[in-house]
């Protein structure tokens, strides 16, 4: 006999979207909710601890063909040999035609011209998306401005939690009732018809409404009764795994990195697509007299790397930058779900999956819950949760998750 708990709203996942949903329900005075997560605490992929603020300056750079170029690259061409050629091509681009591109590669050519696409957008997106841009659909707007500069356009300061962004979300979660948060608990089965979930603890939770932030493909595979056509749809969803490698160094930040906060790689001969300098965001992320750098590498069936081999590859790239110091610490982590990838027909697949799942009063939302990377930065993900809570409470329109979605879930009052 299983222990059964009944709740009005079940929130699966205590990442940013889950915390956003719980925050809305709690602030509105709706107390019949429960948030569960398989991790040991809140924050999801942004999990850290403690909260205090630093004020670093933005300074993004691109590493392309062995050279440094400030961001955004299309507005800062002075560091590129091809800068003048790109500047001539940019006024000839057609953003209207780009909207009808059939691949991400075609989109970038029509938005920025063939030279800048070949030099940066194609190799960078292959590094980021772990595959050819010919397979992906365009998902973002772009502006083409032909100018030549030698420094980043945006060097403004911004608020940043002293010990990482996860500190912010932990602080938000700490303001929520602790008896409505359950950690180290995994969902093992979801009964759509009975509207129940079975947990790794053996408990069964019956819900009236559910906000799920677990990967949509995982959600489908846990549902009963099994629906073969939904499994086939879920199999079409594409994602890239992410390998994270961080280095800690003793001493002062090298001059080559002293005015950089993040670096985007458009070199096909290096594995990473982005490197960040955490110690430039907050010195406390490295400790007194130290500096740190974090590399992100996308992995898929089209682009394989071993987490064990990546540290040597990244150190070799640091040597190319003139950094000869040996790290005093190395941190590694593999994320099975790193980036949800766009692909031709993705929106149709998502609509079919969402329509079916939402008919059972489950709202899949969040970075992988809704599988829409373009609306899942940290602030967007949190807002998705807020709006999901508002929809459940009073039927308010969700504007962040999928702004252009023609139809959405049917509102049924609690």
From TrEMBL:
<dbReference type="InterPro" id="IPR036188">
    <property type="entry name" value="FAD/NAD-bd_sf"/>
</dbReference>
<protein>
    <recommendedName>
        <fullName>Amine oxidase domain-containing protein</fullName>
    </recommendedName>
</protein>
<dbReference type="Pfam" id="PF13450">
    <property type="entry name" value="NAD_binding_8"/>
</dbReference>
């Amino acid at each position: 006999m299983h222990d059964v708990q009944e709740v009005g709203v079940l929130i699966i996942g205590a990442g940013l979207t889950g915390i956003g949903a719980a925050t809305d329900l709690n602030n509105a005075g709706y107390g019949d909710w429960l948030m569960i997560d398989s991790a040991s605490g809140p924050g999801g992929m942004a999990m850290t601890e403690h909260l205090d603020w630093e004020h670093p300056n933005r300074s993004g750079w691109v590493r392309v063909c062995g050279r440094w170029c400030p961001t955004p690259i299309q507005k800062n061409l002075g560091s590129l040999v091809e800068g003048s050629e790109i500047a001539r091509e940019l006024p000839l681009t057609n953003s209207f035609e780009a909207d009808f591109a059939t691949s991400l590669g075609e989109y970038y050519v029509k938005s920025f011209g063939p030279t800048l696409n070949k030099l940066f957008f194609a190799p960078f997106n292959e590094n980021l998306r772990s595959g050819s841009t010919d397979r992906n659909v365009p998902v973002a707007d772009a502006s083409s401005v032909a100018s030549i500069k030698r420094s980043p356009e945006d060097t403004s300061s911004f608020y940043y939690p002293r010990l990482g962004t996860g500190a912010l979300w932990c602080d938000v979660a700490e303001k929520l009732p602790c008896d409505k948060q359950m950690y180290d608990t995994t969902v093992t089965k979801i009964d759509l018809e009975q509207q129940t979930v079975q947990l790794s603890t053996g408990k069964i939770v019956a819900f009236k409404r559910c906000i799920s932030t677990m990967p949509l493909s995982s959600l489908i595979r846990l549902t009963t009764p099994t629906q073969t056509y939904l499994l086939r749809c879920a199999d079409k969803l594409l994602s890239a795994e992410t390998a994270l490698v961080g280095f800690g160094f003793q001493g002062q930040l090298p001059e080559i990195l002293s005015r950089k906060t993040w670096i985007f790689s458009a070199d096909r001969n290096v594995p990473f697509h982005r490197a960040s300098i955490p110690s430039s965001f907050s010195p406390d992320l490295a400790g007194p007299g130290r500096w740190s750098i974090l590399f992100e590498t996308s992995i898929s069936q089209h682009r394989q790397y071993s987490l064990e081999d990546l540290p040597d590859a990244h150190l070799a790239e640091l040597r190319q930058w003139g950094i000869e110091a040996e790290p005093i610490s190395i941190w590694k982590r593999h994320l099975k779900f790193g980036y949800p990838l766009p692909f031709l027909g993705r929106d149709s697949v998502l609509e079919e999956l969402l329509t079916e799942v939402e008919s059972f009063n489950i709202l899949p939302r969040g970075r992988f819950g809704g599988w829409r990377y373009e609306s899942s930065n940290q602030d967007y993900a949190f807002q998705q949760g807020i709006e999901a809570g508002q929809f459940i409470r009073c039927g308010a329109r969700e504007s962040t998750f999928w702004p252009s979605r023609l139809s959405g879930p049917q509102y049924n009052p609690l």
